[in-house]
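To the wet lab folks,

You asked to see what we're planning to order before we commit. Fair enough. Below is the target structure as tokens, and below that is the sequence we designed to fit it. If anything looks off to you, flag it before the synthesis order goes out.
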């Protein structure tokens, strides 16, 4: 799975560096951060709805969310290695989410 997500990131980066006419990815970059964030939010909501419905819908919507997240990372200049490093730093530690819940 990591290779597929990393390949998706590389494809999003390639589209940013070498735009292709008619590309949906380039449409998102052209519209800017607000449009990309809107799509990430929409897709996250669709993942939740999909999880309440069928596994096929959940899979489809999760793939859409991953795609839009990769576009967001590229737009913000966050590398895939940055994400891998962060996840690696969490191994063997309590999750950040759990720690944050304890702070409340």
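Sequence we intend to order:
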């Amino acid at each position: 799975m990591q290779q597929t997500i990393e390949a998706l990131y590389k494809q999003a980066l390639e589209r940013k560096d070498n735009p292709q006419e008619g590309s949906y990815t380039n449409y998102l970059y052209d519209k800017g951060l607000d449009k990309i964030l809107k799509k990430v939010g929409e897709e996250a909501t669709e993942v939740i709805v999909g999880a309440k419905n069928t596994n096929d819908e959940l899979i489809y919507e999760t793939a859409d969310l991953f795609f839009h997240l990769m576009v967001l990372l590229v737009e913000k200049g966050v590398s895939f290695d940055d994400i891998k490093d962060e996840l690696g730093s969490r191994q063997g530690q309590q999750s950040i989410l759990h720690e944050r819940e304890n702070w409340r």
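Structural context that might help your review: Helices lie at 2-17, 24-31, 33-52, 55-76, 80-90, 96-103. DSSP finds six helices and no strands in the chain.

Thanks,
Computational group
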